[in-house]
Design brief:
The complex is a heterodimer of chains A (152) and B (758). Chain A has 152 residues and is α+β, with helices and mostly antiparallel strands. Chain A is built from five helices and five strands, in the order ββαβββαααα. Chain A folds into two domains: 2-74, Beta-grasp domain (Ubiquitin-like (UB roll), Roll), CATH 3.10.20.30; 83-151, DNA polymerase, domain 1 (Orthogonal Bundle). Helices cover 35% and strands 12% of the residues of chain A. Chain A is globular, with a radius of gyration of 15 Å. By secondary structure, chain B is α+β, with helices and mostly antiparallel strands. In chain B, strand 25 (563-566) and strand 26 form a beta hairpin. Classes of the chains: A alpha+beta (152), B alpha+beta (758). Chains A and B meet through helix 2, helix 3, helix 4 and helix 5 of A and helix 1 and helix 17 of B.
Chain lengths: 152, 758
């Protein structure tokens, strides 16, 4: 089957039971998508599919043929970080960094749906994913800052 | 340029932000096989037989082994071996008995992880079930003739009986902290690779050098033939990086199969197989006078160790007993801690081990004294705090084999600052007003002393290459806390170079012969100090070489931004670090006079820990309709001695607070009466999310630098979590209007419902 990831077509041969997350990591070589729980709670595997943030551990790869998939590897343009990546760096929005790709893709998808997301509504969206290091404060700050940069 | 004290952005971040960082699961080795662990589904039982053949027959399976097929000793103790614990060690694969749900019984090695899991389902273990032990306060037997109480830890000073007799008031409390653990977002993982001569294990963390020695010993290899490699690590919090059965198994299997062996834990395994922690019951008797001054604390506690004594041995109980008196004078003190085996997942340390529990107990005591006497709890704290003129203060007990001496501290001053920041009288009035209007809001505060900088040594090598780039090589480890950045800051400052030219190499046993790793909030203190010393040595060597070349005295030279010039003539002739490294490179003329390489190795030694301290304060609201509790406001006051990077210190504190709130309100491992774990997924073991954690206010102070190290630093890793349970318990009491209602953490909706209806 073919998977379109970050605008590139990958030809992969996978068992029907193979998850999208495992396929991205093992067959496309895109290991920026992480697996933290494999039951859809932690969100470390969050990617953007057809514009919306989804859990790649809860999808089979065979369900995703024809979809436009975006992963963390597609965020930066050339050497330039995406505003979300830049803001996470500036605001110390990561420590171990394991959850970071998932948060970046969650925020990207959420801001695409609502560029004005802020305050409690933003916290509510970010509560979709788990981080064990930062206490979330700097993640919230980073996303608010990036959202402002992206709006202007 | 000065780097120490500046909130520079982290050097670690670019690969982590772009998906390029390599965690252990991201590494691929040609020809690798996947390992799947078959785990006990029974909490307690005798193994009658194992049926492995069916799994062995499955196409793509390379091997299936039980304890009968491997010859490996049990896992030993890294710390706090108090003697008599050997028989409680965990075998690498279950031998004779299974003792907890999740215990490794067999391993399957197959072409990929999916196949290995299929084959694991075909392994049949016949077990005669036995009655599980689930209550640590009632120890049974571990084996016939061997008590389930593995050790009794006793610490104290003063005449308990006389102090109790002198006390005008005595209270007795029973207090408990539930079973929590670190739960890093990245599960564990290990890859063993054997090249016929050298064995390498990837996925190391926390203590690579210790584990190298342990693995070499268990496999009968010379330590020089074993190397451990740390990649990016997705959080540790005490539990990751300790030596576990799976680490030994991938190494043994790689050697036996001659192929790389990969094991990546899944989350269910993690929650039943990686170390648990906390889970203590304390029964404490306290004597005090009319002013609330505490004359004596007599504590007895039971630590639910789970099924085996793992690498930490008696560490948690040792620290509980040693650190419980905290920042108060407490003229007489006794603690007796029972380490008791049960049929739960084995326990070890989790961030602020023994202090999260001990602070909960001690601060509940203070609140209990205040309630009994009708005093303001902050006043009772003030009455008991160790005054500044008594510091350095000898606690009268030891911790982790070192004498506890509070090296510096201004305890009353920090309390004053925190109460001023809160505008305490106004806050109290506001909350009373809200309560009068029917809202169940409350305030709680807790004081604590932390420890950091455990020795005995740390060694650092600083090397400058012929392009002027600086490498700091250390046996410390990075679990995500920002080690590379803070160590690079110290090196750049001492050496007088730009931070961008400094690279920090950690967790690689083939790069430096020894190292202590990252635990006990030790890296900034120990590795940071060794880095400052090694960088200073390199700078001195650079100045000596430059003095020759510039025909000046070293004392007249100055190094700045990676250039050496004569003091006062910045525009005159100068040499770069690259020039100076070149001057002593192999084959260069300077080698004879100065020795080869612009390089230095230094060690920093410490036989005492350094003691930071702080205060947590919380405002909570209880919703009587849902029995839910929300933290509205949270403050941490903390004296870190000196902050190398305030942004990172704040990150450590805020992250710790979130974990502490989790332990206070959400997180707990439950078991049913058969010993089945009921919290083996993220649907049941609840980590706090962004919705539960408020913005944390910080009063970060540098009023009491440590006199024990050249930088004056103390650690920040555990101050954010230490007193969270204690502060929230007090705030919930206040919200309910029921003094001392909270006797157990976490304050789950179920427990809150009981309190609301009591």
């Amino acid at each position: 089957m073919k998977l379109n990831v970050n605008g590139v077509d990958y030809s992969v041969e996978v068992e029907p039971r193979k998850t999208l997350a495992d396929t991205l990591r093992e067959d496309c070589g895109l290991t920026g998508t992480h697996l933290g729980c494999e039951h859809g709670v932690c969100g470390a595997c969050t990617i953007v599919m057809d514009g919306s943030p989804v859990r790649s551990c809860l999808l089979f790869a065979v369900q995703c043929e024809g979809a436009a998939i975006e992963t963390v590897e597609g965020l930066a343009r050339g050497g330039e970080l995406h505003p979300l990546q830049q803001a996470f760096w500036d605001h110390h929005g990561l420590q171990c960094g394991f959850c970071t790709p998932g948060f970046l893709m969650l925020a990207k998808g959420a801001l695409a749906e609502n560029p004005d997301l802020t305050g409690d509504a933003l916290r509510e969206v970010l509560s979709s994913n788990l981080c064990r290091c930062t206490g979330y404060q700097n993640i919230v700050r980073a996303v608010e800052d990036a959202a402002a940069r992206m709006r202007s | 340029m000065s780097y120490i004290g500046r909130s520079v952005r982290r050097l670690e971040d670019p690969p982590l932000l772009t998906g390029k960082a390599q965690f252990v699961a991201d590494l691929v080795f040609p020809g690798e096989v996947a390992m799947r662990v078959v785990r006990s589904q029974v909490a307690s039982g005798r193994i009658l037989g194992l049926e492995l053949e069916q799994a062995r027959q499955l196409p793509g399976v390379a091997a299936v082994w039980s304890a009968n097929d491997v010859d490996l000793p049990p896992i030993g103790f890294r710390m706090s071996d108090v003697g008599g614990l050997e028989r409680y060690r965990q075998p690498v694969l279950a031998t004779g008995y299974v003792r907890y749900v999740g215990e490794p019984v067999a391993v399957v090695l197959a072409e990929n992880a999916y196949l290995a899991e299929d084959a694991a389902d075909l392994v049949w273990v016949e077990i005669e079930e036995l009655e599980p032990a689930l209550d640590a306060t009632r120890p049974g037997t571990f084996l016939p003739g061997l008590s389930a109480e593995a050790a009794l830890i006793e610490k104290g000073y003063g005449d308990i009986g006389a102090a109790m007799a002198r006390s005008q008031h005595v209270i007795e409390l029973e207090l408990a902290v539930g079973r929590h653990t670190g739960v890093p977002l990245e599960t564990r993982g290990a890859i063993g690779v054997w090249d016929g001569d050298i064995l390498r294990m990837y996925g190391a963390a926390k203590v690579p050098h210790y584990n190298r020695l342990a693995i070499a010993g268990m496999l009968g290899l010379a330590p020089e033939k074993v190397h451990l490699h740390e990649s990016h690590v997705g959080g540790g919090f005490g539990i990751r990086g300790e030596l576990y059965p799976e680490d030994v198994l991938v190494c043994a299997a790689a050697r036996r199969l001659g192929r790389p062996v990969r094991w990546i834990e899944d989350r269910r395994e993690h929650l039943t197989a990686a170390n648990h922690s906390r889970d203590q019951v304390h029964r404490v008797k306290v004597g005090f006078d009319d002013q609330g001054f505490i004359l004596v604390i007599d504590d007895e506690f039971w630590q639910d160790q789970g099924a085996y004594v793992r690498t930490h041995a008696a560490t948690v109980s040792d620290l509980t007993a040693a650190m419980l008196p905290g920042p108060y004078l407490i003229p007489a003190y006794r603690a007796r801690g029972h380490i008791v085996l049960t049929n739960k997942t084995p326990a070890g340390t989790y961030r602020s081990p023994g202090r999260y529990e001990g602070t909960f107990v001690r601060e509940r005591i203070i609140d209990g004294v205040a309630a009994r006497l009708g005093l303001d709890p902050t006043e009772v704290r003030r009455v008991n705090l160790i005054p500044e003129d008594r510091i350095p203060f000898q606690r009268g007990v030891d911790a982790l084999g070192t004498e506890v001496t509070y090296d510096s501290g201004r305890y009353h001053d920090l309390l004053d600052r925190v109460l001023r920041h809160l505008d305490y009288p106004t806050l109290r009035r506001d909350l009373e007003g809200r309560r009068a209007a029917g809202e169940m809001v409350g305030f709680g505060l807790a004081y604590f002393v932390e420890k950091s900088g455990l020795g005995p040594f740390d060694e650092v090598r600083v090397e400058v290459d012929t392009e002027g780039r600086v490498e700091v090589i250390t046996g410390a480890a990075s679990l995500g806390q920002g080690v590379e950045t803070s160590i690079a800051q110290i090196c750049a400052e001492e050496l007088g170079v730009a931070i961008e030219s400094v690279r920090v190499t950690h967790g690689q046993t083939d790069r430096i012969g020894r190292g202590m790793g990252a635990f006990a909030t030790r890296v900034t203190v120990m590795t940071g100090s060794a880095t400052a010393m090694a960088a200073a040595s390199v700078r001195n060597k650079a100045l000596r070489i430059a003095a020759d070349l510039l025909e000046a005295s070293p004392a007249d030279l100055r190094m700045e931004d990676g250039r050496v010039f004569v003091e006062g003539s910045r525009e005159g002739p100068s040499l770069t670090l690259a020039d100076l490294a070149m001057a002593v490179a192999p084959g260069s003329a300077g080698v004879e006079r100065h020795g080869p390489g612009l390089v230095a190795t230094e060690e920093f030694l410490a036989d005492h820990m350094t003691y930071p301290y702080g205060i947590h304060a919380a405002v909570v609201v209880v919703d009587p309709a849902t029995a839910g509790c929300k933290v509205l406001r949270y403050l941490v006051g903390y004296d870190v001695g000196r902050a190398v990077n305030p942004m990172l210190v704040e990150g450590q504190l805020v992250g710790g607070v979130a974990q502490g709130i989790g332990g206070a309100l959400l997180e707990e491992f439950h078991y049913d009466e058969a010993g089945q774990p009921l919290s083996a997924s993220f649907m049941d073991y609840l980590l706090p999310t962004a919705a539960e954690i408020p913005a944390v206010e910080l009063v970060l102070r540098e009023d009491a630098p440590s006199p024990l190290n050249p930088l004056g630093v103390k650690g920040a890793g555990e101050g954010g979590i230490n007193a969270a349970g204690a502060a929230i318990a007090a705030a919930v009491d206040d919200a309910l209007g029921l003094p001392m209602a909270v006797a157990r953490l976490p304050i789950s909706p179920e427990r809150l419902h009981q309190l609301l209806n009591s």
